[in-house]
Specification:
The complex is a heterodimer. Chain A is mostly helical. Chain A has one domain (about 30-145). Chain A contains 7 helices and no strands. The longest helix of chain A has 25 residues, at about 20-45. The relative contact order of chain A is 0.14. Chain B is globular and about 50 Å long. Chain B starts with a helix and ends with a helix. Chain B has one domain (about 15-125). In chain B, about 75% of the residues lie in helices and about 0% in strands. The chains are: A mainly alpha, B mainly alpha. Chains A and B meet through helix 1, helix 2, helix 5 and helix 6 of A and helix 1, helix 4 and helix 5 of B.
Chain lengths: ~150, ~130
C-alpha cells in the first residue's frame, strides 16, 4: 500500500472500494439474473402468482418468447455463464418491451407516468453487464481459469 | 482479443451511462413526491416530514448528485440504503417474491446503487473532471 501522505482526502476510501468493485459486479449480476428469472417463471409457470397477460401463453408469441429469454437468460446471468451474450439478449428484450410490446412512448414520455421504469432500469443494467462481463464469481471466470 | 479490448475500453463509459440513467430514474420519484412533476396519482404531493416526503428528499438530493456525478460514492451509498429501506417498509410485508410484493424496482435500485458506490462515477462525471485537475 502507498504511504498515507500520498493520498488526498477520500482517496483511501476510493482505493479500498475499488478493490471490491469486481465482487460487487458479480453480486449485481446474480441479483439481476434472479429477478429476471423470476419474471420468466411467472409468465410460463404462473409462480408465485399468475400473470393475467400470460394466461394463454404460447411459444411463438411475443410474451412466450419473452418468457423464454427471461428464463434462459436470467438463469445464465445468475450463474454467470455466457454472461455477455445473455445480457445483450435481455437488454434487447427490455428495449423491445419498452418501445413495442408495452408501447410506453404512447403513454407518455416520462417512465414514471408510462409505467416503464423497471424496463428502463433492466435495459441499462444489462447493457452495462454486456461490457463489464460477469465478474470473478461466475462460471465464465471459472472456465477461463481452467482454459 | 479485439472484442475484449472494445469491451474493456467501453465498460467505464457504460458505467457513467448506467449512473446517469439510474439517477434520472430515481430523480423522478423525488420530483413527483416533492413538486408534483411528473405528476403521479399515488405519489405526488406528500405531506412535509412524512415518511414518503423524507424519502423524496433523499431521492431528490441524491439523484441530483448522482446525475452530475459529484460525491458519487457517498450519494450512491445513501440511496442504496434508502431504497433498501423502501423495500423492507413498503414491499417486503406483502410477500417474499418480488412478483408478490411488486418490489423488483427497489431491489434493482438498491443493488445498482451499491455497485455504483463501489465502482465510482466513471469518466463522464464531475468527479472525474475534478480528479484530472
Amino acid at each position: 500500500m502507498l504511504p498515507a501522505t500520498s493520498f488526498k482526502r477520500g482517496d483511501l476510501m476510493e482505493a479500498t472500494l475499488d478493490t471490491y468493485r469486481p465482487q460487487m459486479l458479480s453480486i449485481l449480476r446474480i441479483v439481476m439474473g434472479l429477478l429476471f428469472l423470476s419474471h420468466g417463471i411467472q409468465k410460463w409457470f404462473a409462480f408465485p402468482v399468475a400473470m393475467p397477460a400470460a394466461a394463454n401463453i404460447t411459444l411463438f408469441s411475443m410474451i412466450g418468447a419473452a418468457g423464454c429469454i427471461e428464463i434462459v437468460g436470467g438463469a445464465l446471468c445468475a450463474v454467470g455463464l455466457f454472461t455477455r451474450v445473455a445480457a445483450l439478449l435481455m437488454s434487447g428484450e427490455m428495449a423491445v418491451a419498452y418501445w413495442f410490446y408495452a408501447n410506453r412512448p404512447a403513454r407518455g414520455f416520462i417512465p414514471l407516468q408510462n409505467g416503464g421504469t423497471a424496463e428502463v432500469l433492466y435495459c441499462f443494467i444489462f447493457l452495462y453487464l454486456v461490457f463489464a462481463g460477469g465478474g470473478p464469481w461466475s462460471l465464465d471466470a471459472l472456465l477461463r481459469k481452467k482454459a | 482479443m479485439k472484442l475484449d479490448d472494445i469491451c474493456a475500453a467501453w465498460a467505464p463509459r457504460l458505467l457513467s451511462v448506467l449512473r446517469i440513467i439510474s439517477a434520472l430514474v430515481i430523480l423522478q420519484y423525488g420530483l413527483t413526491k416533492l413538486f408534483g412533476f411528473p405528476y403521479s396519482e399515488d405519489l405526488s404531493f406528500q405531506p412535509a416530514f412524512s415518511l414518503y416526503w423524507d424519502a423524496a428528499i433523499f431521492e431528490f438530493v441524491g439523484g441530483t448528485l448522482l446525475l452530475i456525478g459529484v460525491f458519487t460514492r457517498y450519494a450512491a451509498f445513501v440511496l442504496s440504503g434508502e431504497t433498501a429501506a423502501a423495500y423492507f417498509i413498503d414491499h417486503a410485508p406483502h410477500g417474499f417474491f418480488p412478483m408478490l410484493n411488486d418490489g423488483d424496482l427497489p431491489v434493482m435500485f438498491s443493488f445498482v446503487f451499491l455497485f455504483i458506490a463501489a465502482a465510482g462515477a466513471g469518466p463522464w462525471s464531475v468527479d472525474a473532471l475534478l480528479k484530472k485537475k
